[in-house]
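Re: the multi-chain job from yesterday

Posting the exact lines I submitted so nobody has to dig through the queue logs.
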Amino acid sequence: MEAIGGLLTGFGVILTLDNLFLCFLGSLIGTLVGVLPGVGPLAALALLLPITFTMTPVGGMVMLASIFYGAMYGGSTTSILLNIPGEAASVVTCLDGHQMAKQGRAGAALGIAAIGSFVAGTLGVIVMTFFAPTIAAVAIRFGPPENFALMVLGIVCTLFMITGSPVKGALMVALGFLTAAVGIDVVNGRERFTFGSIDLSAGIELLAVVIGLFGVTEVLNNVERVVKSTLVAERIRGLWPTLADWRASWRPMLRGSGLGFLLGLVPGGGPVTASFMSYALEKRISAHPDGFGKGAIEGVAGPESANNAAVAGSIIPVLSLGIPSNAVTALLLGALVIHGVQPGPLFITQRPDLFWGIVASMYVGNVLLLLLNLPLVGLWVQFLRIPYRVLFPIVLLLSIVGVYSANKNVFDLWVMLGFGVAGYVLSKLKYDLAPFVIAFVLAPLLEQSLRQSLAMSPDGAMIFVQRPGTALMLVSSAVLVALMVRRKPKGGSR
Amino acid sequence: MFERALNAFWILLGAAAAAYAWTLGLIGASGPESGLFPFLAGLIIMGAGAVLLLRPASENIAPDFPRGQALWRVLGVIAGLAFMAISIPFLGFAVAGFITMVILLRTVEKSSWWFSLALALVAIVVVVWLFGRVLGMALPRGPWGCEAWRPSGGCSPVSASS
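And the result, structure tokens for all chains:
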């Protein structure tokens, strides 16, 4: 009942003209970001974060969250019609969605992708409504040692889930910690790694790091090749699925929703992993697995549902524990901190308007996105005609505006460029960049918890063993590390 | 070869970071000091670098760095961004952005002069109008006058940071 009351509060917050407009705007931008290949939701969120500085925290977060889940809707359009994923979570949709389009069933593929996204997104938010307060109620009893152990477990889970080398992932985590340590130590005012530079004494700007790593890196990776794409269908007909399509799709939608939600909760999971695992699951349990890759509608319904449910799942740890499960939610956490709000177990009780406002906006946003993606699909098809040579200079221009506006300091532009080049080189060597951002955002909290824990302990580091909850989480982390060590290296890289 | 050199760099970076953090102090009378956390991070970087360096050579990745035209396109984008960062304090956002866009469109994408000039002009006008005027965000004007247009129509003076 408490959740229902909270949700009503949230609808009271969201159902104002300003907030509804921001939810609509975010959904519109999110769909556009999803549709346009080469512009990911993370880069878009980072680019648009400075705009939210002039908004209320509720309005800003509603817009940013709707860009995140809006991108999941839009990504399928490009995958189905161009065979190029609009964003990473729609990669698998290319396999069967594009085949359906080539067979003249683009409408059915787009329809089932949008409906699956709506069903999963709504189911995910319903579970989130009741689940997030329960998690927060448990976590509210946590002290600094438990918070430290939970963050360690979250980071180890991220390393366990990444597709590349866990050693490279651990290195990226440590680099994230080290980068975050640059600046003035807030506890005693000492300068760290500043080397006398005034620019460095303020610390490394989050926006410059994220836009560099995910905006500039993406542009550099895209401009090195000339991608020629052909639009399969100019006019989309038959968006509403047939009875046979429904029969084939409703189970994958529900399975994708459940799987996606659970994978969203797990650090390192999120929409990309969810869509791949859903596709693998559907293919494995299908009575006719040979049909996959040749236009099986289950191969669209499952992954598209999974990536949307994962968004709802991945927002829960950020809002109720203050722990991001992927790079996008790490940026959302950073955005909340910039707005002067610290997410965590106390967030729901201290800022019910903001928490329930975000939850309620996700119900509204899913309806808006269904309307934007089904009747207006023709409009999005027109956007697919924009060549990348027109897009990338504009993306770079917006990157510069976004980074500069945070501190009005040209030094941040050099930081962005440096991280962009570093991200490009590291991505060539199969380094996963997401753990870096998660560690960079979590580092101040992790360091604070570590120092508080050690300061309050008469037995030094033994405090982490003496408290059962902390010990359990650290033992779980150690087990995961042991499993990673025993795991066979993938793709020749351990 | 490139990856081995990078792994050696990680070891050196981790060692340097840990050594510097040591000088900040690890544990003091009142508990953990400023150096503890970066010291641990430095050790992890050093350890991970060592593991990557000591693994069999067959596990190293040969990076598919671009060559020929593709390399020039990548370098063109990097040079464009560097030009923008250098020139903004002297030329302001609008002029520096316009020149950068024209350079990118001409050199990286080989677009025609007319197309490059028209797109750069339209993009700059829209960005300056939307971000500088409608949203009231501060865009550096350099020597050309005020730093940020206010929604009311006025403009704020150039600040020292720009």
